[in-house]
Design goal:
With 206 residues, the protein is α/β, with parallel strands linked by helices. The chain has a single domain, classed as P-loop containing nucleotide triphosphate hydrolases (Rossmann fold), CATH 3.40.50.300. The chain has helices spanning 16-29, 44-55, 62-86, 97-107, 112-122, 138-146, 160-176, 190-205; strands at 4-10, 34-38, 90-94, 130-135, 181-185.
């Protein structure tokens, strides 16, 4: 039996962690085994790479940044996600290749198709069964982050125009793959968002 691969995407402050936790609790209560991962940082190697790409101060060339994310992704999928799915587990992950297409492709103004191809090569073509996109404006995201962030984050520190390009990149991905994406307004009440996600996951489990 092959498990499910569910990813959460969205701008900073969109509520991915909250919804991931709620979905995990709901699935666990229903008797499913859930494995968590994140990108970057889902593995021991990934944690080291996360420090470089998110918290290192100073310039990193956009193509180098994209390749660092792809390296983390390759290791995460090979050593954590695929083994869990082969056991029949449900993998819930914070960010995946769509983040690279949105942040490095749209945000850094690289070729989105090339960024995507690098990640598909790194992961041997693995795509999620469901990608939940929590849509939020850059302005709202910054307001939420300001209340909680206590460490430097290279991407969060970018200006609003960068984050608006990221948002547009995400929405373009969702339009291109409507069967995989579930787009929800991140400004809706938490319980309303959670219920919509559960409804979609029920259809996958069936």
């Amino acid at each position: 039996m092959t498990g499910l691969f569910i990813t959460f995407e969205g701008g900073d402050g969109s509520g991915k962690s909250t919804q991931s936790r709620l979905l995990t609790d709901w699935l666990t209560a229903a008797g499913h085994t859930v494995v968590h991962s994140r990108e970057p940082g889902g593995t021991e190697l990934g944690t080291e790479l996360r420090e470089i790409v998110l918290h290192r101060r100073g310039f990193i060339a956009p193509r180098a940044e994209a390749l660092l994310y792809a390296a983390d992704r390759a290791h995460n999928i090979a050593t954590k996600v695929r083994p869990a799915m082969e056991r029949g587990d449900i993998v819930i992950q914070d960010r995946y290749l769509d983040s690279s297409v949105a942040y490095q492709g749209a945000g850094r103004v690289l070729d989105a198709a090339e960024v995507r191809e690098i990640s598909l090569w790194a992961t041997e073509g693995l795509l999620p069964d469901l990608t939940v996109l929590l849509d939020l404006s850059a302005e709202h995201g910054r307001e939420r982050i300001a209340a909680t962030r206590d460490t430097y984050d290279r991407l969060e520190s970018e200006k609003n125009d960068f984050h608006e390009r990221v948002r547009d990149g995400y929405l373009a991905l969702a339009v291109a793959e409507p069967d995989r994406f579930l787009v929800l307004p991140a400004t809706e009440p938490i319980e309303v968002i959670a219920a919509a996600i559960q409804t979609r996951v029920v259809s996958l489990l069936a």
